[in-house]
Design goal:
- It is a single chain.
- With 175 residues, the protein is α+β, with helices and mostly antiparallel strands.
- It has six helices and seven strands.
- Strands 1-7-6 form a three-stranded antiparallel sheet, with helices on one face.
- The protein is elongated and about 65 Å long.
- It starts with a helix and ends in a 9-residue tail after the last helix.
Length: 175
């Protein structure tokens, strides 16, 4: 892996969580890097080089609709008591703001997953589970709201790599 690719990935990844320790961020990065490197290694068996395209869906956790998440969990093999607990957790959520003695009206929340919660990243991964490369030769690696598209040199061109990002499936993932 070239030094510049490693640097770009590391800087992009470490800027994600201000609240976590550097050692936790490095461990998380090491895990991601191992998976990405494995995919690159596999692609290099049949390609001269591999293009890595990284995306970070801004405000991804804020856009997850609870109803979409529940619909995507339905066909999963989740025990009933856990599924019901998750549905209960996401249903009927509300928010109000207090500033001094003034309290806002209560607003219903039908989208958003609390970042930093244990349930946040897996919930987002469930929602984007149907996001796949259009070309079977391309590989996609997803970690929470980061997605990496890997395209081997034999498949780079307007017909594959650009089509991946021009796909109308990308903006509809969380709707």
């Amino acid at each position: 892996m070239s030094k510049s690719i490693f640097t770009v990935l590391l800087v992009a990844d470490l800027g994600q969580e201000c609240s976590e320790s550097l050692s936790d961020a490095l461990l998380r990065f090491d895990y991601k890097l191992q998976i990405i490197l494995q995919q690159i290694t596999n692609l290099l068996k049949d390609n001269e080089y591999v293009a890595l395209i990284s995306t970070d869906f801004s405000h991804a956790f804020d856009t997850v609709r609870h109803s979409t998440l529940v619909q995507k969990m339905l066909p999963m093999d989740i025990p009933d008591h856990i599924f019901n607990w998750l549905v209960n957790y996401f249903e009927g959520r509300a928010h109000c703001t207090r500033l001094g003695d003034i309290i806002s009206i209560i607003a219903a929340i039908n989208a958003s997953i609390v970042q930093g919660s244990v349930i946040g990243p897996p919930s987002y991964v469930i929602v984007v589970s149907d996001l796949h490369p259009l070309d079977q030769h391309n590989k996609m690696v997803k970690f929470a709201d980061n997605t990496y598209l890997l395209v081997g040199s034999r498949h780079i061109g307007l017909s594959t790599a650009q089509a991946e990002f021009n796909s109308s499936a990308w903006p509809r993932v969380t709707t």
